[in-house]
Amino acid sequence: MIDNLKRYLHCRPRRVDAALAAVLLLACACPASSLTFPGHGLALPWWPGFMLSAVPCAFLLWRRTRPRAAVAVALGCATAAVGLGYLVTPLLLGPLMAALYSLAARTGRGTANAFAFTGVALLTCTALIAGPAYEPLVVKLLGPAFWLLLPTSAGTVNRLHRACLEAERARAEHAERVRDEEARRRVTEERLRIARDLHDVVAHHLVLTKVQAEAVVRFLRTRPDDAERLAAELTGTATSALRELKATVGLLRDANGSEEPREAIVSLSRLSDLAASFEGAGLSVSVTEEGRPRQLAAGAGLAAYRIVQEALTNVTKHAATRSAEVRLAYTCDRLIVTVINDGVREHVDHPVPNGGFGLTGMHERARSAGGRLLAGPRPLGGFEVVAELPLLGGAVGVPARS
């Protein structure tokens, strides 16, 4: 019920201001004797006090939009009433108190304090000079200060409270925006990861399948034994593709998003099997290691395997060579993976609209594992891919030169 009343008053500010002005005007319309010092024959006519109260009450209708003007008019009327001999009472100062509250609630602390202390000084000096002689001195000195500083303080507290609520609301909106942006970023990263996984699995095995199928067709009549052997290898390639594709799709359904199963599916320990799989496509791959093998950082083993797989697939598709070399060099803080071929490239493999995404995926793989990758033609011919991946507890430094 209270909340409904607050919403009603908040939605109808003009009615609230009109009601406040009417209440204060009725309170100030009491007999003049209540505004004078009793017992000393200082009765004043009622109409000057009423007029000096009606004017500031009318200006309270603009206390929200023009609070400074409302305070100035109310202060001038209150000072004139005190100069005529009226006592400094809450009834006399009611319009000024309401205007000061609105001013403090809608302006800065400096402006509100300036108006309040100016009013205290004016009313105190006027009461000391023109006020009734028998009015207690404590009323002349402390009355204006108390009745004017009280609404000023209340308005300042209200303004600070609203500022705190607004700051909390802004922080909540900012936190919500950050959460939404983080969610969108995670969705984008997950889409890229899914695209990389599917590209690595499908592209690699489809290339091998295409090359082997073409060889089977070519050798079917002239070299049936070789055709039969390649057909058996083609079956193995298809089986391997189905196995990795099933594992990849299973990972996409994994609600926990664990990286451990992905590392178990493919890693550098299966690099020899990967090299052997290209023999059916007519590509001879040699694998050499330098340094003592050490544990890689999280995700680096999978990234290294996929980079080698994609690089060898590109050699099969684009290079006029039948051999490639894979080097694994372990240093103090990183693993340097190098894939080299000496053949002339049939066309440039770089990301273009509607083009291949092999190099793009390799760069993304290296960055996702905390490393970096360089790829480009060799000075003496051929193509080279160099990836630097961090070891466990290590960090990648200056990129290697191709």
Question: Would you kindly provide a written description of the structure presented here, covering whatever features stand out?
Answer:
The chain is α+β, with helices and mostly antiparallel strands. The protein folds into 2 domains: 2-176, no CATH class; 269-402, Histidine kinase-like ATPase, C-terminal domain (Heat Shock Protein 90), CATH 3.30.565.10. It contains 12 helices and 5 strands. The protein starts with a helix and ends in a 12-residue tail after the last strand.
Sheet with the most strands, sense and barrel status: 5 strands, mixed
Straight-line distance between termini: 76 Å
Rough shape?
A: rod-shaped
**In percent, how much strand structure appears in the residues?**
5-15%
Overall domain count:
2
Helical segment count: 12
Tell me roughly what share of residues is in helical segments: 55-70%
Query: From N to C, what is the helix and strand string?
Result: HHHHHHHHHHEHEEHEE
Query: What structural class do the secondary elements suggest?
Result: alpha+beta
Strand order of the largest sheet: 1-2-3-5-4
Mean pLDDT: 79
Total beta strand runs? 5
- Give the low-pLDDT segments: 31-41, 347-355, 397-402
Protein traits:
2 domains; 5-stranded mixed beta sheet; Heat Shock Protein 90; 5 strands; 402 residues; single chain; alpha+beta; 63% helix; disordered C terminus
Q: Short description, anyone?
A:
The protein has 402 residues and is α+β, with helices and mostly antiparallel strands. It has helices at 2-11, 13-28, 46-59, 67-84, 90-106, 109-130, 137-219, 224-252, 260-265, 271-277, 300-318, 358-368; strands at residues 284-290, 323-330, 334-341, 372-377, 383-390. Mean pLDDT is 79; it is low at 31-41, 347-355 and 397-402.
